TrEMBL record:
One of its GO terms (molecular function) is metal ion binding. Pfam families: Fer4_16 (PF13484), QueG_DUF1730 (PF08331). It comes from Methylohalomonas lacus. It is found in: Cytoplasm. [4Fe-4S] cluster 2 binds at C209, C225, C252, C255. Its cofactor is cob(II)alamin; [4Fe-4S] cluster. The gene is queG. PROSITE patterns: 4FE4S_FER_1 (PS00198), 4FE4S_FER_2 (PS51379). Catalyzes the conversion of epoxyqueuosine (oQ) to queuosine (Q), which is a hypermodified base found in the wobble positions of tRNA(Asp), tRNA(Asn), tRNA(His) and tRNA(Tyr). This is Epoxyqueuosine reductase. The keyword Signal does not apply.
Length: 357
């Protein structure tokens, strides 16, 4: 029989054991919230109306289901949010890679195994454990895989506050972590101790953004964001942002790297998030040499695969255009000058022009 708020002792004890089980499964924190996101719904609609989502049509495709959990999954009355730290402990120091324009910078979250796979399997195990405890109940698991306002839900569950860069920040863990959710019809007790906003007057994330994508506190224009430009965008990267992209070939971490709260971040202890194929500090010319088959092989089980080989080459071409001129750089770019993709050719031509070719 499912626990109810009519039996607070049982539901409270269940929530406690649920947290213990989540820790056993490798999550660093768990919180429980209700489904009221009316404040965030108004913010989302304003953000969409401003066009800040760019070509991410999926952000508006589902109407208000994103901000109304009980409409996305009928019967939902609680959301269980979990956190999993991902910072790879053995990775090359980010600032060293960013300063070496001959190497490609890959966002720290994408250096290891695809987090969707890691989180989803463990969320399912958590749901299985819960079902074993209470019997059959309604639920759905999500990991950045459906119209879910995961940061708002995690904030409401007490897992942190949403910073000016729009990432969730925990006062003892920074922001280098993934979030996942279980939508459920179980009347579990909610966590009512929300983390208050501790960004204060700090604007470090806004000031450091290479493309000035954080257009105001808590407002990110995705169309300017390097993560959007190198991951979500499928066409040509606007010329106005190419120099600012530097050597960032997949995502951007600058706003997190500068955040003072990340001095409290915890490196991950999971083998899943260990660096693969030397992508924490690989040479641009080496990565640009990957053919389609090599790209598919090297990105198997990685979040990087979703952008496809052409966008991979597009991104690296921009980085090579920003790299110091050398025979190796020119040779690499010349080797792709007649690539089958017009998009790749256009970015290669731009890069060669940066070197006076």
């Amino acid at each position: 029989m499912s626990p109810t708020t009519d039996n607070p002792v049982n539901s409270t004890e269940l929530a406690r054991r649920l947290r213990d089980e989540s820790e056993r499964l490798g999550f660093q924190a768990l919180g429980i919230s209700g489904v009221d996101l009316s404040r965030d719904e108004a913010y989302l609609e304003k953000w969409l109306a401003a066009g800040y989502h760019g070509e991410m049509d999926y952000m508006s495709r589902h109407g208000r289901k994103r901000s109304r959990p009980d409409e996305l999954v009928p019967g939902t009355i609680r959301v269980i949010s979990v956190r999993m730290d991902y910072l790879p402990p053995q990775a090359e120091a980010p600032h060293r890679v960013l300063l070496d324009k001959q190497r490609g910078y890959v966002s720290r979250y994408a250096l290891g195994r695809d987090y969707h796979k890691v989180m989803r399997s463990r969320l399912q195990k958590l749901a299985d454990w819960l079902q074993n405890e209470v019997g059959t109940f309604g639920y759905r698991a999500f990991t950045d895989s459906a119209p879910v306002l995961e940061k708002a839900l995690a904030r409401n569950a007490g897992l942190g506050w949403i910073g000016k860069h729009s990432n969730l920040i925990h006062p003892q863990a920074g922001s280098w972590f993934f979030l996942g959710e279980l939508y459920t019809d179980l009347a579990l007790p909610v966590d009512d101790e929300f983390a208050t906003d501790h960004c204060g007057s700090c604007t470090a994330c806004m000031d450091i953004c290479p493309t000035q994508a954080i257009v105001g506190p808590y407002q990110v224009d995705a169309r300017r964001c390097i993560s959007y430009l190198t991951i979500e965008l499928r066409g040509s990267i606007p010329v106005e942002f190419r120099k600012a992209i530097g050597n960032r070939i997949y995502g951007c971490d600058d706003c997190q790297l500068i955040c003072p709260w990340n001095k409290f971040a915890h490196p991950s202890d999971k083998a899943d998030f260990e660096v693969r194929h030397g992508l924490d500090s690989a040479a641009l010319v080496d990565l640009f040499a990957w053919d389609e088959a090599t790209f598919q092989s090297k990105t198997a089980g990685s979040a990087i695969r979703r952008i496809g080989h052409d966008c991979w080459l597009r991104n690296i071409a921009v980085a090579l255009g920003n790299a110091p001129t050398s025979d190796a750089v020119i040779g690499a770019l010349e080797s792709r000058r007649n690539h089958a993709s017009a998009m790749v050719r256009e970015h290669v031509d731009w890069a060669l022009a940066q070197h006076g070719r």
